[in-house]
Amino acid sequence: MNNWVGIGRLTKDPEIRYTAGEGIAIANFTIAVDRNYKNAQGEREADFIPVVCFRKLAELVANNLTKGRLVAVSGAIQTSSYTAQDGTKRYKTEVVADEVKFLDRPKPTTNRQQTDNDGFIPIEGEELPPWEENQF
């Protein structure tokens, strides 16, 4: 059985690319997963888990997630190896995601005002469209 589940925050925005032949979307990102214990200095440490996802899930992740977002990832651990330019053999371990759940809401962008009114953004005088009677 090869199942991995973790909750963490993205360390940077996801990177997306497409395969040359079939144009399959591939997204890569890393999440920081807190450990359950503190180190000798009393600080929490984190593990940085590389994640890859494919096709629609890759596009969904790339279009909706940014650095700092909290996600739950489930998938399988995959290892591979390659020969680096200096001739040394390198190993890579990553999670191939089957599922990515968004656990928080995106932060408001700088061009929108933050609000506590269930998503309603107040607009000021000149931004209002002209009122016409009987428009409804």
From TrEMBL:
It holds the Pfam family SSB. GO terms for cellular component: nucleoid. The keyword Ion transport does not apply. Residues 108-117 have a biased composition (Polar residues). GO terms for molecular function: single-stranded DNA binding. Gene3D superfamilies: Nucleic acid-binding proteins. Residues 124-136 have a biased composition (Acidic residues). InterPro entries: NA-bd_OB-fold (IPR012340), Primosome_PriB/ssb (IPR000424), ssDNA-bd (IPR011344). Residues 104-136 are annotated as: Disordered. Keywords: DNA-binding. SUPFAM superfamilies: Nucleic acid-binding proteins. It comes from the Bacteria. GO terms for biological process: DNA replication. The keyword DNA-binding applies. PANTHER family: SINGLE-STRANDED DNA-BINDING PROTEIN. Homotetramer. This is Single-stranded DNA-binding protein. It comes from Caloramator mitchellensis. The gene is ssbB.
